[in-house]
Input
Amino acid sequence: MTRPLVGRAALALLWTATLLAGCASQPIRHKDPRDPWERMNRAFWGFDLAFVRQVALPVGHAYMRATPHFAQVGIGNFFDNAEYPIVIVNDFLQAKVRTGLSDTGRFVMNSTVGIAGFLDPAVTVGLAKNDNDFGRTLGTWGVGPGPYLVLPFVGMSDVRDLIGRVPDGYLSPQDYINDFWIYLGVYAVYVLDLDARTLIPQYDLLESQHPFDEYSFVRNAYLQHREFLIRGESGQSEEQQEEDLEKSLEDSDDSGASGGSGAPGASGAAGASGAAGARSPPEQ
Output
């Protein structure tokens, strides 16, 4: 087991213990039964928000200005392809055999003809890009989401999705890089790509909605999207799912507000990985 995998398992255990302790020590009245740890979640939300505004957004915009568009696309394709074994395995675990075979063909084609995934020739032959993870597999198997939670540098999640990050980590090729400096360099580029492609668009989308309580708005959007990915139309592509989510966000503000005390802004730097698309980075 490599150091990143050990760290991933230890992080999950640490947060599970912390959450159980916090649940026992913070009795408060809850307006939303899905969010029994709201006091703790809002505190972590504020921490993540400060990091996003002061560090993640400026760095992400600097990366986008300094990197040619074609290079950004190639880097994004590379990391999507590198993590595609997560998608393939979870396709089959959810008995989506046809989708699993299609995703296997996409991975093989892009890894070879697409030069390790920097190019995406699979899309030209009709092999759609999908997204999947073990959190969704657990949901398909009937496991409930558990309480909603927000964690520093991890962002939006729930107990089921947090647990799902551990087995997914064993399918992420970059987690098997044994050289620390190479791993650090790959992970640094991964974070820049995640920042530019996921965090910044989500933050811009949130800012455009002007919700009354942004914490509740983001919480409801996340839980709604995850439920749709598990219970919704399985035949939809990732792009179709994203379009449906953006439409649904416009109607989530009024129904999601549970008070005006939430900190404004987007979720944590890595919290975007738990939202639409669920692109999970190696654990810090």
Notes: Residues 3-20+34-274 form one domain. The CA atoms of residues 132 and 182 lie 27 Å apart.
